[in-house]
Write a structure and sequence with these properties.
Protein name: CAAX prenyl protease 2/Lysostaphin resistance protein A-like domain-containing protein
Distance between the termini: 24 Å
Keywords: Membrane, Transmembrane, Transmembrane helix
Helix content: over 70%
Strand content: under 5%
Radius of gyration: 19 Å
InterPro entries: Rce1/LyrA-like_dom
Order of helices and strands: HHHHHHHHHHH
Structural class: mainly alpha
GO molecular function: endopeptidase activity
Shape: globular
Pfam family, one: Rce1-like
Length: about 260
């Protein structure tokens, strides 16, 4: 068995085991811990952590000598990620503050789940593992690496839709969101924290202001989000040019790379 076949076989098997473990056990684990601890936020975080085990085992099999924390790209600068994400999402914060009312009451456990726990684990699972491992350690290019993970990420958010039009809007927005987060992750030297904090701040502003019932949003909600995305892209490009670091995503790495990054 060649190295490539072995790698992809283990990778696919590992993610498949994770997917079904998460599908069948996540809610049961969450319910058990919630009933035991009385904390919805703790239960959500613990359930994500436990169902992550198949992915951790997969990485240990594929890369026995590498640090798992590093493979999930969590060993890079947290402050750098926080700074880029905060500056980049200022158009959303300022725009939403000007055009939308703040919510009257906040459930802090739900807020923690929607703005901390879910964004963190979604970035670890989708961007770092499902997309990042393929781009970093195989010959697959950007589009080849992100396609399946982004489609699955988008499919995961379709529960928010209430009609076919809304379903298509949510699918497109979350798919493109995954592509954007992946690009930021790769071009920030495989530092996952910028993508995590972008996800956190975008969800946070959506939660604390009365914008829309789901991610499809409305005119002003989406305008300020697009302005933030443009600003983030500008900041990342400026940073790379300032430090004279090569871009990970180029015409030569869109589909197939001759060497892993």
């Amino acid at each position: 068995m060649s190295k490539n076949i072995r790698f992809f076989s283990i990778f696919i098997l590992g993610f498949t085991l994770y997917y079904f473990f998460d599908f069948f056990c996540f809610k049961s684990i969450q319910t058990f811990i919630k009933e035991t601890s009385g904390s919805k936020a703790l239960a959500h975080t613990a359930a994500y952590s436990i169902t992550l085990i198949p992915l951790i085992i997969t990485l240990k099999i594929l890369f026995p000598k590498k640090n798992t924390f590093s493979l999930f790209s969590l060993d890079k600068s947290i402050l750098k990620g926080l700074f880029v994400a905060f500056i980049g999402t200022l158009p959303m914060l300022i725009g939403y503050f000007m055009y939308f009312k703040r919510v009257e009451s906040v459930n802090f456990q739900s807020l923690f789940i929607n703005t901390i726990s879910s964004p963190f684990f979604e970035e670890v699972i989708f961007r770092a593992f499902l997309i990042g491992i393929l781009f970093r350690f195989t010959g697959l290019g950007f589009i080849s690496s992100i396609l399946f993970g982004s489609l699955l990420f988008a499919q995961m958010h379709l529960y928010q839709s209430s009609n076919p039009t809304e379903l298509m809007e949510i699918f497109l927005i979350t798919f493109l969101g995954s592509v954007f987060f992946s690009w930021v992750y790769f071009e920030m030297d495989f530092n996952l924290w910028p993508a995590i904090f972008l996800h956190v701040f975008m969800n946070l502003y959506w939660e604390i202001f009365n914008i829309a019932e789901n991610v499809s949003g409305n005119l002003y909600g989406n305008i300020f989000k697009i302005l933030s995305i443009i600003l983030v892209i500008t900041v990342v490009i400026y940073r790379k040019q300032k430090h004279k670091t090569p871009f990970q995503i180029t015409g030569k790495t869109l589909f197939i790379k001759t060497k892993p990054s």
